[in-house]
Amino acid sequence: MQFTDDVIPEHVRALGHQHPELLAIGMQGAVFRLADHRVAKVWFHAPRAELDRLQNLYAEIRLPFHTPEILEIHQGSRWLVTIEAELPGRPLHEIAPEFGTTTWPAARDCVIDVLGELATTPAPPALFAMTVLDETEPIRHDYRPRSSAEAPTAPAQQTAARGSWLDALSSLLARRVATYGDQLDRLVDKFDTKLDCLQQRLHAINPTHDTQLVHGDVTAGNILVDDQLRPVSVLDFGLLSMAGDPVFDSASAAALYALWSPDTRAIEADFDAALIARLDHNADGLLTYRAIHALLIGNAHDTDPFDRDSGVPLTAKLLNDPQYTAFLT
Q1: Would you state the pLDDT for residue 267?
Q2: Residues 325/189, Cβ–Cβ less than 8 Å
Q3: pLDDT per position as a tens digit, 51-95
Q4: Which three-class secondary structure state does DSSP give residue 73?
Q5: More confident residue, 35 or 288
Q6: Of 283, 264, 265, which Cα lies nearest the Cα of 273?
Q7: In this protein, which residues make up the domain named Protein kinase (predicted)?
Q8: Does the pTM of the predicted model rise above 0.90?
Q9: Which domains does the chain have, with CATH numbers?
Q10: Residues near 26 by Cβ (< 8 Å), separated by ≥ 6?
Q11: How far is CA 191 from CA 1, 95, 304, 321, 324, in A?
Q12: What 3-state class would DSSP assign to 26?
């Protein structure tokens, strides 16, 4: 099936919208502009229960940016379709200056502005019911909020008693690698050694916060900006949205900014320097979470209905990079 096939917009026309305009197509689905300041999204994988949870999450998110609102959910002939309010702004990647130019920092800082707001936003209750990727259970299914009668404790003690973010992420990593680790073992030097070390690095993290709103897929396409590169809207929660450590979001956003670019490692290093300076992140934490994120999404395209490029080679490239090889061996 090609992107130009009529089966996708036909899902929208069947709802009475005769001239949908394709805005974007990605891992989760295709988005079309309608004629009434709304958009339609055709979802390639999501079941109804997942979209119900996402609708609840969107209703609870409180950020100083516009965020999605699901107005309607419809069953199409093949996929589900949501009707949502159209959000203001243009995708950052459409107008961002190129990396290495004198104006590049404006694009980087726009992303960090979003990350900073996410980092200070507690996870809403609906986030604890969300699943990630193709999982069927919420990642923090055993989390128990502290009651008002409980005395405050150190973060590490809190999470050990009430469902640890680190344990939840560690288990998710193990499950994901179990599905395609054989592919990585053929491509990554000393893969088992690096994976063991990565788990140790993860459990050495002592997060300052572990129940913040983690978007999980902060890309230059999911941030809409005004003409001055100020963020006005943040889109597409759900793929890896979790209650967790905001450093995870920062680490993954730096990698996702230009994932397929030959400058990816240099862009990450530039982001990291700014993240350490502005958000007081830890360098080891950024490297650890970035490697984990790469492993989590490495085979996320394997069930893509359009057979787009696998992310496995990109994950292997990161793990074979000299910096990560030294860090994980």
Answers
A1: 98
A2: yes
A3: 999 999 999 999 999 999 999 999 999 999 999 999 999 999 999
A4: strand
A5: 288
A6: 283
A7: 17-329
A8: yes
A9: 7-85 (3.30.200.20), 90-327 (3.90.1200.10)
A10: 221, 236
A11: 34, 38, 26, 12, 12
A12: coil
